[in-house]
Amino acid sequence: MKLIGHIVKKDFRELSGTVAIYTLFIAAKLVLGALLVHGAAADPAMFSRIQSYGNLCLGLEVLTGYVLVAAWVHEHPLIGTRAEWMTRPISGGQLLAAKLCGLGLVMAVLPLALALPWWLGNGYGVHEIERAAAETLLRQAVVVVPALALAVLTDGFDRYVIWLLVLFGLGFGASMLPPVRAAMSTPDVAVTREWLSLAVAAATALFVVANQFFTRRTGRGVALLCFGLGGTALAAWWWPHDLTRFARRTAEATWESVPADQITLVLERARVIRRPNREPELRVAMAVRGVPPDLKLHGGRAAQTWEWGGVKIERPGELHIENFGTVAPVLRALGLRVPQMDPAWFQANAERPLRAGLLGQLIPPEGVGLSVQTPMRPAYLARMQHEPADYDLAVSLELFRPEVIGEEPLRTGGRIDRGRDHVRIARLEQVGSALRVTLVESGPAVSWKSPGRYVGTGFAGEGPEVEYFLTNRARGNASRGQELLAQRARFGTVAITWRVLEFRAPREWIGGAWVELQGWDQNLTLAKVANRRVAEVPCALQVESLPLTEDK
Amino acid sequence: MNLIETRKLSRWYGMADGVHGLALVVPQGSMCLLLGGSGAGKSTATKVLMNLLRPSEGEALVLGVDSRRLGPGEFAQIGYLAEDQTPPMHLTVREWLNDCRPFYPTWDGGLEQMLLKQFALPLDRKLRLISRGMRVKAALLTVLAFRPKLVVLDEPFAGLEPPVVAECVRGLATVAAAGDCTVLAAVSEVGEFEPLATRVALLDQGRLRLNESVEDLRARFRQVEVKGAEAHAGPAADWLEWEDTRERVRFVEPLYEGEVTERAWRERFPGAAVAAQAMTLREIHLSMMRAGRVVKKAEAA
Predict the structure, then answer these.
(1) Which residues of A touch B50 (CB under 8 A)?
(2) Which of A1, A13, A87, A91 is the best mutation test for B, with the most CBs of B within 10 A?
(3) pLDDT 10s digits, A425-442
């Protein structure tokens, strides 16, 4: 143990300069992040500039990391017969332990120690620190593992650099090959293949490193590396089984129980939409009934079939949810009035964007409106109109629970701070009757999200994760912000976003026309709402002889 | 007890032989010179002994352990110094010594100080800034200061000035004399090792031609000068470096056995004056090298 400590100290002494440079790059990146969070950027251009400096620091940090790992190993070269240490009383195991200790301190403990104040300053709790640390270590492993494998097989820095470039060139070239791209994007198994190939590569590196330290048989080390790279390629190309279903089961186990059997789809109508110079589309409108009032729906992919006798057409479709399903639960979460069964009110107050093409549509008398719009060849449509087909639809409905992260009276400099989640109102502008609000957000940006757990920028899974509302509690209305710009930067697992939102005046249906509310922008409160994904419910709709109408 | 013993040891590089069928024995307490010219296989042999290379065939026992299994326990008793070793050039002499010290429980601070003084090493200069001779002396110090049981040297002093070599060998002698130290020195010429050597092994083209004690070797080699030999029967088969001028005949007798051999000379050179002179190890080595052959005692028998 004393000997291992002695070697670690010696390595640190020899490489103190490189370690200092490495520390400098990490620290510089975090300082730039802190500058962004604390308002150093006056506009998106400056935000972008600071972000580029941060990326430059990150790039140099990674580069120095590769240099550092090689230098650390080459302090005691494992190739050749000239190294003086080889006839000193040090065993391969002791040397490996010393190298791992040293590299662990520099490549793992040092980045974590430097990032810890940054994380604490951003309000991270134990859970976020755990996740951020795990992600930081994983990223460090991406540098350390290949660098270590090549460093133990090379006797000098020049050869190391050449082989590193060859390895990356091979990896990049292989990943660009169409069959590999296809294999890596094959549904169901793509994620498994990605993780499995990474695991094989990591295991290969570990075997190579152990072989070199314990036996110094370089020929065998190179053979192991080649064999492992072959295994990695095979895993990426060929692996046939989806192993992520086990992880998905774990995720499902954390979901809330919802009355899934009460959620049903009811057909409203199906119509053909024709636009000049575009393929006609078939829109099937439905109502979803039985959704708990405090949960909002989110669209996903739908599988549809039309069948006449033995002829079958299959088309995927994108689900669109009507305003009611997306806004009413949020209004409830914000404690605002939600009038029942008044479509005009919802459309006026909820500010569903016109460009989404959903306003003016039929709002179902009960339940939540949902539609699937599918481009369709005219010949098929003609046949469907002439001879209605049997229609089958299978969807997986995602249910989200809106949660208010924080509220703050609308004023420049106002802040919403909840734990690790921070929002600063950087600027307010009046543009016509609309209000434009610039926000600087910061929060955890780990990509390893726990199912169903809030991690700052959003919950695990896809969907409308974070939304902003301007509420006027006196009048009981709310306006949802439309995103005009979102510039994102990442500094040490903290995401910083420069976001510009536009809030339009809520409108009311008065005398047969939409009228914007006057004075709506007084005494406003900015609310941040995050949506927690709580369940995924499979639903099906079967219609015998689906009648089509023409859009007017 | 033999500290080094090889059995049919071979190491080849592709099609080329490094060493072949080596059967080398270095008894405890001896100072063995492994002599051989360039490419004879000296470095390959020492590298196999130190587990820097794996034997292709056969085995080598060092301190009673298979060379492939040499570990920290054995290396703590072995001092190895080779010409092609790379010392840590960025360190000062002091830093290098500080680095080496913790590895050896038997490190002798007093001996370190004594050798430092003897070698006149500049403690605070980086190794890259001192002469090669100084670097070799510093390396030798790190090899000797822990009083190793076995010292293996591979052409460490090649190309150095004779006074530097003499100083290094004196240092080696100091340590060897003070304790139970066995030395194997692979060198291309005897040089300054002459007074220390107790055993000689001769390698030629990867094969061991000779492995004998210096005492035996010196006893059986004689430089012979014959004057007034008007008629003679020519050289005997074993004699080396035969030289016949009108005035005198000179040759090297490799199998001198006292009175028996002298009687044989007188019979071969009747009426001539025969003078035989003992030879130094260096002279014996050169004689065999010049003759291009080695005469072993057993062979003659």
Answers:
(1) 86-87
(2) A87
(3) 988 988 888 899 999 888
pLDDT at A453: 42
Contacts of B90 in chain A (CB under 8 A): 14
- Stretch (H or E) spanning B175: helix B162-178
pLDDT at residue A460, rounded to an integer: 34
- Residue in B47, B53, B103 nearest the CB of A89: B103
Give residue B127's domain range. 2-212
Nearest Cα of chain B lies from the Cα of A49 at a distance, in angstroms, of 41
Regarding whether A44 and A6 lie in a shared domain, the answer is: yes
Q: Which residues of chain B have pLDDT under 70?
A: 294-301
- Single out the residue in A108, A142, A176 at which a domain terminates: A142
Q: Is the dihedral of CA B86, B92, B94, B95 positive or negative?
A: negative
Residues of B in contact with A94 (CB under 8 A): 72
CA dihedral B47, B51, B57, B58 (to 10 degrees): 100
Q: Pick from A70, A88, A92: which is nearest to A154 by CA?
A: A70
Query: What's the alpha-carbon Rg for chain A, to the nearest Å?
Result: 29
Strand order in the sheet with B207-213: B78-82, B150-154, B182-187, B31-35, B199-204, B207-213
The domain containing residue A268 runs over which residues? 260-400+538-550
What token pair was written down for B155? Answer: 């052409």
Q: Do residues A487 and A495 lie in contact, with contact meaning Cβ atoms separated by under 8 Å?
A: no
Q: Give the bridge partners for A526, in sequence order.
A: A408, A470
Q: Residue range A487-504: average pLDDT?
A: 87
Residue A310 identity (one-letter amino acid):
G
Whether B73 and B154 map to the same domain: the answer is yes
Residue A254 placed within a domain: no
Question: Does residue A505 share a domain with residue A451?
Answer: yes
Instruction: Return all residues near A378 (Cβ < 8 A) that are at least 6 apart.
Output: A279, A280
